[in-house]
Amino acid sequence: xxxxxxxxxxxxxxxxxxxxxxxxxxxxxxxxxxxxxxxxxxxxxxxxxxxxxxxxxxxxxxxxxxxxxxxxxxxxxxxxxxxxxxxxxxxxxxxxxxxxxxxxxxxxxxxxxxxxxxxxxxxxxxxxxxxxxxxxxxxxxxxxxxxxxxxxxxxxxxxxxxxxxxxxxxxxxxxxxxxxxxxxxxxxxxxxxxxxxxxxxxxxxxxxxxxxxxxxxxxxxxxxxxxxxxxxxxxxxxxxxxxxxxxxxxxxxxxxxxxxxxxxxxxxxxxxxxxxxxxxxxxxxxxxxxxxxxxxxxxxxxxxxxxxxxxxxxxxxxxxxxxxxxxx
Amino acid sequence: xxxxxxxxxxxxxxxxxxxxxxxxxxxxxxxxxxxxxxxxxxxxxxxxxxxxxxxxxxxxxxxxxxxxxxxxxxxxxxxxxxxxxxxxxxxxxxxxxxxxxxxxxxxxxxxxxxxxxxxxxxxxxxxxxxxxxxxxxxxxxxxxxxxxxxxxxxxxxxxxxxxxxxxxxxxxxxxxxxxxxxxxxxxxxxxxxxxxxxxxxxxxxxxxxxxxxxxxxxxxxxxxxxxxxxxxxxxxxxxxxxxxxxxxxxxxxxxxxxxxxxxxxxxxxxxxxxxxxxxxxxxxxxxxxxxxxxxxxxxxxxxxxxxxxxxxxxxxxxxxxx
Lengths: 328, 322
What we know:
The structure holds two protein chains of two kinds.
Chain A: E1 3-16, E2 19-32, E3 36-40, H1 47-54, E4 62-65, E5 68-71, E6 74-75, H2 81-87, E7 92-95, H3 109-121, H4 125-138, H5 144-148, H6 157-169, E8 175-179, H7 187-204, E9 207-212, H8 215-221, E10 224-229, E11 232-238, H9 239-244, H10 249-256, H11 296-300, E12 305-309, E13 312-315, H12 321-327
Parallel strand pairs in A: 3-9, 3-10, 7-8, 8-9
Antiparallel strand pairs in A: 1-2, 1-4, 1-5, 5-6, 10-11, 11-13, 12-13
Helix pairs in contact in A: 3-4, 4-6, 6-7
Chain B: H1 2-29, H2 45-55, H3 61-73, H4 88-123, H5 128-142, H6 145-159, H7 178-215, H8 219-226, H9 231-253, H10 255-268, H11 274-283, H12 287-315
Helix pairs in contact in B: 1-12, 4-5, 4-7, 4-10, 4-12, 5-7, 6-7, 7-9, 7-10, 8-9, 9-12, 10-11, 10-12, 11-12
């Protein structure tokens, strides 16, 4: 499998009144054709911002810099705004977290679906209407023809998210960013939506980047997982390894703080402390103040990536020769 | 919908009775009477009393209000004392056109100006352009209408001589065609229109800007961008329609204020509208005329509200009345 998306040293920062807030701090990752990649991390770790940056949807006062953002070999940063627009919604699509507010309340579902189809596929009104209804049926909306002419407020959250998915997939994007698409929904609906997405992914053969803070959802949805903390990638591995054999102390903490159905536990083990203030990042590794295995060097220098196994990257001093030496 | 409008129109009746009652009581509690402004000061108290009795001004307040209400309900708003017995409806009618011309052209003009300015200002928040718009708008809201009016008269009528100082048509000129009349009115309209529009535009710009600022941060605007729509479509199709919802409401609700706001402008420019007769009717204790204008303004307030509600349901699919 070749690489569909290549991101190298992506930095996104926001210039606020209180100072520059670095949201994404030099992340690099690849996504293969047809692969589904999960990005996990606490709120504010930069997972959504990273994806919005790739689609160039970061507005003022945000600033995006990267050595490389390549989609199918095309350097996205070099594209004009017009060319970028023709790819947005067409080659790259986004499903947002909040279905209740992500649809425009004053336009019908059909109108909002048709907009993208007409724009990118050059279909006329009738054809795009046909296609929209087809899409609505595909995402499992009953009475699709009726829903086509309805306004968002008359649909439930789950139905709206289905409509959003229909909208995102209507132009058969190469890559789909799903930003916590089920967080705002209740558990049954959540399961339905996840099932739908897995099913559609196989049918349309789209690569997915699935953002979530729910490890359970991630483990069902994706092949590979990136764990982010304070704007950096701290671990990157396949989903099985992540659950069974996580190596970064933060990932271990995350897995331990998740309740498991097969183990009887008196209490969960949360990670102590809290996420540092982005305006006042700790020196060295951003996780060191909360890390149980923190060493002298963690306070001083940001660790490098260490490929501890084929396809398993960890950004931690514990795995470097230097760190290993200090520890022993 | 029809039922809703009908219900709202029926609700007008108690509202009208309430407002007219309050105004009637207040104006009658004010010292003086219509007669004190019409008579020779040397006339005897006895003759005055006789005249009051003839006109029914000596009867109890509630009884007089009752009479007025019964007559008004049948469409008879009575006579004006200030205009020596002319019908109140006739006077209002003769003044209405001038006020409507001034008010409506100002509303339309300020709306046309304010919406694009507000949108551009909001989409470039904190730019130099935005700051100048905000400062100008605050100035526009703060400068009193009479002051701006006088400044404009001084500059463009007195110094430059481009426009007439006041009035609606040139005195003593006969207009052969309606076009000639319109041209003359247009020339007289410029300065009062500018004065009134400055204040209205400033208000609308502020509403549009703040409403727009709120809307462009909404999730659905981001969705529209993620679809690959051009910035213009995102702003003018997806954001503006939502941003205009509250602006339209405010416009409907402020219709009567816009009308009465024209009063001062009319006074400054001697524009022969409702404003002038309203002030006269109060100062001359012209009960009949005052009550007539009061009814007119009250109806306008209620209709303005209703219009805003109806229009709201037209532009916002979430609002439905049944």
